[in-house]
């Protein structure tokens, strides 16, 4: 099996949780995809980086990140996957709100102003989190080239409506789930 198939198996085996849950969007669902069980797993995390780097290989960007917490391990996995290929790729973290102390930065890590960046998320239902990150990145002077997620729960239309290219490594159908 290849990286894509291997990661799908980790997602279906470790991350798909059945039972009534309330999503960050406020919607209720009969199952949840808890991707932190994958993005923070010693064998699955490297696959996340490889799969998303492959998914976005034709996009030009030199930094990756998104809204903390879902995007953080995704961005770091991509940073490490890129380093293994000698591709320079920085990672950054977008806070939900600016800090009131220290440097008072909303975006942590290497500077994003004037850079082409990729916004990522582990999974997205409405696009709200990733679009919040996109807004902060644009305010900081970054050029957002697109959005990539591991699993799309339906955010594609909202992200594209905001004028951004959108890619997902897996759809719900790919995982055998019904929306």
Automatic annotation (TrEMBL):
<feature type="binding site">
    <location>
        <position position="99"/>
    </location>
    <ligand>
        <name>5-phospho-alpha-D-ribose 1-diphosphate</name>
    </ligand>
</feature>
<dbReference type="GO" id="GO:0004588">
    <property type="term" value="F:orotate phosphoribosyltransferase activity"/>
</dbReference>
<feature type="binding site">
    <location>
        <position position="95"/>
    </location>
    <ligand>
        <name>5-phospho-alpha-D-ribose 1-diphosphate</name>
    </ligand>
</feature>
<dbReference type="Pfam" id="PF00156">
    <property type="entry name" value="Pribosyltran"/>
</dbReference>
<feature type="binding site">
    <location>
        <position position="153"/>
    </location>
    <ligand>
        <name>orotate</name>
    </ligand>
</feature>
<dbReference type="GO" id="GO:0019856">
    <property type="term" value="P:pyrimidine nucleobase biosynthetic process"/>
</dbReference>
<keyword id="KW-0808">Transferase</keyword>
<dbReference type="InterPro" id="IPR004467">
    <property type="entry name" value="Or_phspho_trans_dom"/>
</dbReference>
<dbReference type="InterPro" id="IPR029057">
    <property type="entry name" value="PRTase-like"/>
</dbReference>
<feature type="binding site" description="in other chain">
    <location>
        <position position="96"/>
    </location>
    <ligand>
        <name>5-phospho-alpha-D-ribose 1-diphosphate</name>
    </ligand>
</feature>
<comment type="similarity">
    <text>Belongs to the purine/pyrimidine phosphoribosyltransferase family. PyrE subfamily.</text>
</comment>
<keyword id="KW-0460">Magnesium</keyword>
<dbReference type="InterPro" id="IPR023031">
    <property type="entry name" value="OPRT"/>
</dbReference>
<feature type="domain" description="Phosphoribosyltransferase">
    <location>
        <begin position="82"/>
        <end position="157"/>
    </location>
</feature>
<keyword id="KW-0328">Glycosyltransferase</keyword>
<feature type="binding site">
    <location>
        <position position="125"/>
    </location>
    <ligand>
        <name>orotate</name>
    </ligand>
</feature>
<dbReference type="InterPro" id="IPR000836">
    <property type="entry name" value="PRTase_dom"/>
</dbReference>
<keyword id="KW-0665">Pyrimidine biosynthesis</keyword>
<comment type="pathway">
    <text>Pyrimidine metabolism; UMP biosynthesis via de novo pathway; UMP from orotate: step 1/2.</text>
</comment>
<dbReference type="GO" id="GO:0000287">
    <property type="term" value="F:magnesium ion binding"/>
</dbReference>
<feature type="binding site">
    <location>
        <position position="101"/>
    </location>
    <ligand>
        <name>5-phospho-alpha-D-ribose 1-diphosphate</name>
    </ligand>
</feature>
<dbReference type="GO" id="GO:0044205">
    <property type="term" value="P:'de novo' UMP biosynthetic process"/>
</dbReference>
<feature type="binding site" description="in other chain">
    <location>
        <begin position="121"/>
        <end position="129"/>
    </location>
    <ligand>
        <name>5-phospho-alpha-D-ribose 1-diphosphate</name>
    </ligand>
</feature>
<comment type="function">
    <text>Catalyzes the transfer of a ribosyl phosphate group from 5-phosphoribose 1-diphosphate to orotate, leading to the formation of orotidine monophosphate (OMP).</text>
</comment>
<comment type="subunit">
    <text>Homodimer.</text>
</comment>
<protein>
    <recommendedName>
        <fullName>Orotate phosphoribosyltransferase</fullName>
        <ecNumber>2.4.2.10</ecNumber>
    </recommendedName>
</protein>
